[in-house]
């Protein structure tokens, strides 16, 4: 097993296990946390990679732990708790042998693989993202069985099965439609006739199909884009023969093949009718995250974080990350311009900075013309490190960075009462940052307008690097 020492003073500490579940009523706070922040920032991270008999082989397969920074009148509390999933129970019971994840195979010498046709073993290790559906809070990965949790106690409350009918694969990046009170997502149904399905859910029991499209070899898609009129799928040229998933005997992502000759196929579906409005093909790249999309005159504009190819996935193998030998490939913020009446795809880089884990003022700007994106940049470092505020209208950007600090996804929270016409960056940016020299993490609060620190709260230990989190207000 490759267990990382807790004394590392660089980014490698972010890949070390943190199996302690703690509750701290009041963290040491410097600066002033705005009193209008209520509820909490809840994040989910892979937190246990090492088991008695072996470790997971890929960062994406660490067992999900929830971390919560709670806000109350300027004070900050902290709590962490594992999701009590079938995946974690099986991993603990088998010493890790039974793990069947994104890129970690069950160990055949230790555990007999069981596979049913066209139903990849669906992991419930929901370590990617969180959302709210009606009154329920869900932790998600890319299988359609999210895990319900209590946003205050972090207790696991069982599975949500309401999306399972749409397909075996989905995304952990559903979009919110505030007008209809729905979550919109995409799924891939795998079978003798596979198809993409765009679906919407109002609650755990109410759902509907918005659009479908047959597909022979589904592409890996981690997110998609939504505008008031269109649901936009971006097919990475990284595709799978569904038979291979069913019978290939390899872990999920290793069944996919990089086919740059396909380019990136982009499909805009009418949300009103479900009809395919138009498809375009862009030069090949690999995308995990869209940033935003909107209509501009006769064009559909889609901003995203583009990797050169799918090798980013292997670069996130755990051994290399722990050894510090895998410098992840940098993603570039890219703007695609798609003529709605047909025509060639326009493509241009938005700024001279690398950017991943993008966030925007989602509630007010998603699907609309916007100005600011926030993200994390490696800037040549061995891993994502610095926070970036990017003005997408002119490419200018502001950076927050400190020695030995490795920042996570920046979550923009609009200031309560800050809904004025110039309010897009009126609020704070929250990020959980690893202070590698101190051997622990802290919650950083930046003024979103100046991108200057206004407060930080020290966590009692290091929090492993993760992907996504959400601010859930108490109201
Ligand atoms: Fe993601």
Treating each run of at least 4 consecutive H or I residues as one helix, how many helices? Answer: 5
What is the count of β-strands? 34
In CATH terms, what is the fold-level topology? Neuraminidase
Q: What about the largest sheet?
A: 6 strands, antiparallel
Q: What can be said about this structure in brief?
A:
This protein is mainly beta and 475 residues long.
Task: Describe the fold and architecture.
The structure is a single chain. Helix content is 6%, strand content 40%. By secondary structure, the chain is mainly beta. It starts with 22 loop residues before the first strand and ends with a strand. Strands 2, 29, 30, 31, 32 and 33 form a 6-stranded antiparallel beta sheet that branches. β31 and β32 form a beta hairpin. The protein has a single domain, classed as Neuraminidase. Mean pLDDT is 93; it is low at 1-7 and 109-120. Bound molecules: fe (ii) ion.
Please write out the topology:
Blueprint: E1 23-24, E2 29-31, E3 39-48, E4 63-72, E5 75-82, H1 86-93, E6 129-133, E7 136-140, E8 147-149, E9 156-159, E10 169-170, E11 175-177, E12 182-189, E13 195-201, E14 207-214, E15 225-226, E16 230-235, E17 238-239, H2 242-247, E18 257-258, E19 264-270, E20 276-282, E21 286-296, E22 299-307, H3 311-315, H4 318-323, E23 332-339, E24 346-349, E25 356-359, H5 362-365, E26 372-377, E27 386-391, E28 397-400, E29 405-407, E30 411-414, E31 427-435, E32 440-447, E33 453-458, E34 469-472
Antiparallel strand pairs: 1-5, 2-33, 3-4, 3-34, 4-5, 6-7, 7-8, 8-9, 10-12, 11-12, 12-13, 13-14, 15-16, 16-19, 17-18, 19-20, 21-22, 22-23, 23-24, 25-26, 26-27, 27-28, 29-31, 30-31, 31-32, 32-33
């Amino acid at each position: 097993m490759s267990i990382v020492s807790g004394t590392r003073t660089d980014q490698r500490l972010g890949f070390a296990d943190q199996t302690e579940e703690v509750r701290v009523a009041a963290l040491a706070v410097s600066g002033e946390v705005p009193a209008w922040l209520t509820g909490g920032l809840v994040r989910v991270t892979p937190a246990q990679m090492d088991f008695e008999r072996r470790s997971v082989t890929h960062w994406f397969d660490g067992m999900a732990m929830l971390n919560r920074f709670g806000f109350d009148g300027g004070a900050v509390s902290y709590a962490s708790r594992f999701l009590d999933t079938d995946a974690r129970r099986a991993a603990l019971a088998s010493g890790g042998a039974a793990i069947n994840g994104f890129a970690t195979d069950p160990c055949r010498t230790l555990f007999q693989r069981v596979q049913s046709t066209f139903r990849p073993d669906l992991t419930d290790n929901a370590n990617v993202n969180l959302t709210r559906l009606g009154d329920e809070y869900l932790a998600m990965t890319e299988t359609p069985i999210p895990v319900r949790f209590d946003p205050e106690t972090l207790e696991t409350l069982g599975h949500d099965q309401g999306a399972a009918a749409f397909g075996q694969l989905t995304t952990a990046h559903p979009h919110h439609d505030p007008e209809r009170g729905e979550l919109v997502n995409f799924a891939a149904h795998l079978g003798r006739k596979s198809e993409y399905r765009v679906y919407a859910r109002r609650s755990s029991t109410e759902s509907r199909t918005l659009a479908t499209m047959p597909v022979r070899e589904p592409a890996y898609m981690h997110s998609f884009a939504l505008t008031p009129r269109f649901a936009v799928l971006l097919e990475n040229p990284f595709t799978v023969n569904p038979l291979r998933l069913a019978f290939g005997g390899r872990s999920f992502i290793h069944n996919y093949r990089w086919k740059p000759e396909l380019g990136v196929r982009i499909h805009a579906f009418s949300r009103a009718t479900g009809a395919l409005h138009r498809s375009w093909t862009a030069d090949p790249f690999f995308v995990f995250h869209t940033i935003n999309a909107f209509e501009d005159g006769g064009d559909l504009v889609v901003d995203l974080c583009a990797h050169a190819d799918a090798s980013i996935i292997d670069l996130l193998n755990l051994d290399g990350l722990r050894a510090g030998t895998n410098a992840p490939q940098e993603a570039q913020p890219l703007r695609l311009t798609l003529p709605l009446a047909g025509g060639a795809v326009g493509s241009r880089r938005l700024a001279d900075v690398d950017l991943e884990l993008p966030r925007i003022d989602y509630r007010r700007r998603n699907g609309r013309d916007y100005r600011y994106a926030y993200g994390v940049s490696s800037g040549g470092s061995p891993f994502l490190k610095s926070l970036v505020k990017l003005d997408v209208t002119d490419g200018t950007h502001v950076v927050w960075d400190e020695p030995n600090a490795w920042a996570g996804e920046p979550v923009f929270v609009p200031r309560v009462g800050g809904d004025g016409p110039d309010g897009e960056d009126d609020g704070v940016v929250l990020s959980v940052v690893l202070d590698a020299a101190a051997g622990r993490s802290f919650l950083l609060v930046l003024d979103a307008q100046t991108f200057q620190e206004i407060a930080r709260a020290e966590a009692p230990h290091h929090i492993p690097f993760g992907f996504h989190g959400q601010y859930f207000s108490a109201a």
